[in-house]
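Run: sequence + guanosine-5'-monophosphate -> complex structure.
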Amino acid sequence: MSEETIFTRIIEGEIPSYTIYEDETTYAFLDANPLAPGHTLVIPKEPYERLNDMPPDVIGDVFSTAGKIADAVEEATDATATTLAINNGEDAGQEVPHAHLHIVPQSSEGGPKS
Ligand code: 5GP
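>> structure
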């Protein structure tokens, strides 16, 4: 597990973010460089580096949070769908070594809303 990441600092309020949702084990906030308005990241509060490192119950918690907020993310952005994605490891494009699930609102035209 990573000791401290930029995302643990966000959870602790040391770095400002726009919080979407929080519970005992997960945290969701707006991405600072969104692919589309409303682009949200869902993370486990414990700084597991990759999905592979996460216990099944925590993986369940992250997806449960995604399921809870997907409707709200769509409604807030007039999206009709969302893409859920994980860059699972550096060679897959993971830049922050704290596992995270991207929720990207999509438009009816088929691309990210912009
Ligand atoms: P990755 O490439 O690791 O899958 O995605 C990392 C995401 O974290 C990127 O989309 C990036 O914009 C976002 N990000 C990086 N640093 C910060 C930050 O300090 N605040 C917020 N809200 N998002 C960040």
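>> summary
Residues 4 and 47 are 7 Å apart (CA to CA). The first strand starts at residue 19 and ends at 22.
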